[in-house]
Write a structure and sequence with these properties.
This protein is α/β, with parallel strands linked by helices. 32% of the residues lie in helices and 29% in strands. The protein has a single domain, classed as Rossmann fold (3-Layer(aba) Sandwich), CATH 3.40.50.150. The strands form two sheets. It has a seven-stranded mixed beta sheet, sandwiched between helices. Strands 1-2 form a two-stranded antiparallel sheet. Helix 4 runs parallel beside helix 5. The chain is globular and about 40 Å long. The chain starts with a strand and ends with a strand. Keywords: Methyltransferase, Transferase.
């Protein structure tokens, strides 16, 4: 189980999946990130959502809406269960698809977000395909919106090399993960 770190659902538990491939952002890192990123009244997209914890953290802190994207049907069902446990009426949409298909599909539907958070599996060559899709579909992030990519220490330079449409404003390390915070220009 994970625990929401702030907002109206502070300390509420979130169920997790037993999938070996799923790695969760450490609680201290989540808290630190949401202490510096303001999501109140904004739209939030969580790519590689897993349990949906980042979407629930955003909604707990007053995000207007959130979209959780994950390729695993088990993960999508888990996000739905977690939403129903917290508040079935929350404005959280679940998209069960690979990010390479989900991003263009969301754009065709007119979706654009103020904050996009991406937490691909570490050291498995997802950073380049992620930025290829984002660079081809920049409308996913509203102008001056934020893109936050969580990586391992080894991948943080790759993020800088590939982020042609995004300006790095901060890069922080917490609990063994690196957050690269960028703004769409």
């Amino acid at each position: 189980m994970l625990t929401i770190t702030g907002g109206k659902w502070t300390r509420r538990p979130i169920k997790t999946t037993a999938r070996r491939k799923t790695r969760y952002t450490p609680q201290s890192a989540r808290k630190a990130l949401f202490d510096i990123v303001d999501v109140a009244s904004k739209s939030f997209i969580d790519l590689f959502a897993g349990s949906g914890i980042m979407s629930f953290e955003a909604m707990s802190r007053g995000a207007a809406e959130a979209i959780s994207v994950d390729v695993s049907k088990k993960a999508c069902n888990l996000i739905l269960d977690n939403r129903n446990e917290l508040d079935p009426s929350m404005n959280l949409r679940i998209v069960c698809a690979d990010f390479r298909r989900a991003i263009p599909s969301l754009i065709r539907q007119g979706v654009g977000a103020d904050t996009v958070f991406a937490d691909p599996p570490f050291d498995e060559e997802y950073i380049e395909p992620l930025f290829n899709v984002l660079n081809q579909n920049p409308e996913l992030i509203n102008h001056w919106g934020q893109l936050i990519v969580e990586t391992s220490e080894r991948e943080k330079k790759t993020v800088l090399e590939l982020s042609s449409l995004f300006q790095l404003v901060d890069q922080r390390e917490y609990a063994g993960v690196v957050f690269s915070i960028m703004v769409r220009q």
